[in-house]
Every structure is written in structure tokens, then in C-alpha cells.
Amino acid sequence: MLEHIQNNDFINIITGRRSVRLYDENIPIPKEELQAIIQEASLAPSSANIQPWRVIVVHSPEGKSKLRPLVQFNTQQNDTSAAMLVIVGDTQSELYVEEIYNTAVEQGKMPKDVRDKQVTQIMSMFPHIPRDLKIEIAKIDASLFAMQLMLVARAHGYDTNPMAGFERDQVIRTFDLDDERYVPVMILSIGKAKEEGHQSVRLPSERITFWR
Description:
The chain is α+β, with helices and mostly antiparallel strands. Helix content is 42%, strand content 14%. It has helices at residues 7-16, 31-41, 61-67, 75-80, 97-106, 112-125, 131-155, 168-174, and strands at 53-58, 83-90, 159-163, 182-191. Strands 1-2-4-3 form a four-stranded antiparallel β-sheet. Helix 2 crosses helix 7 (131-155) and helix 5 (97-106) runs antiparallel to helix 6. The longest helix is centred in the last third of the chain and has 25 residues, at 131-155. The model has no long low-confidence stretch (mean pLDDT 93).
């Protein structure tokens, strides 16, 4: 999908993105396509390539019913979207380091000696990082993933809305995950817009840039 996007198309994806709050309930996203969107978004960068993002895909009526009281200011997105994507950070993502780096060697993307050196360095450091720093790292990396997911969704013809207003202290347990390990980052609604999102204003680049 993404390899066919031209430069102008990509600019249009960025400039045409809107935060959509009302979706067409009659247009679902096939599971295979949503999985492909998540896979393509996973090309986002992360610290030491440990990819700490995880996604709870809330798409069933039962799942949305459980989520609804936790997103009281965003129930319209919950009720009409094809899915609500709860983006969480995994504070134990170093558990996947060997799998990731072994696969890189198997696919010819990394020499084995480089793999051995990097895995040793990562595993000598990450397991001992304080939890609050692990949370910060996971949130930064998962936010990069979330932004990329919004753009990938747009490339697939769907719309999204990022949400920070939800019950963070409840959402992980509600979907039967370990809230000591996983930390909530944001929720993305995704679907086909029923009403186009409003354009918004951004500060000009010269107002946000410091040249030294």
C-alpha cells in the first residue's frame, strides 16, 4: 500500500488530515486491513528498536460497551467509529529484544556480531532502568507509532481522532491487561468520516523555531 504513495500524495495526506468525531457506522474496516494499517504504522522508530507500542483494538459491541463509560467526553467517536484503538506502552518491551534482533539477522538486515553487541548492551541496561523512565520512553515511542498510524490510516482512506480524555486508571484493567506492565498513552478512533473534520490553525514555523 504505502510504497505506491508519491511525494505529492504524502503531502496531501499530512495537510488533509482532520480529527473526525462522527463516523459512518455502516462502513467497517476489515480485520485484515486494520491489521495491515497497524503493521505499516509499526515501521515507526523507537528507542533501540524495542517497539514498546501495543494496541487494544476495541471493535466489537461488547468491547465498545465496556469502553464507553471510560470515554465520557468522546462517546460519539466510540459509538460510530469502526474501532477504538487504545495505544499503550509496554514497560517490559526488552523481553522482545532477542526476537527482534534475531529476526534482523535471519532477514539479512544485521550482521550477527552487531546483533550480539547490541543485544548485550540493551539487556545490560534496559531491565535496570527505573520504571518512571521506562514509562517515559514507552510513551514517547508509542506516540510516534500513533502519529504514524493516523497518517497510514489516511493513506488507506480512513479518518482518525486522537484522544487523551479517558479514564487512564481504569482502561488497562478493563481489557484484562496488567496495569503494572502496560501504561495508557492515547486512544485513536478510526473509521470513514460521516462529517468532515474542521480545519484548524497552526502557529507559523517562525513562531516555533529557535535559530542559534
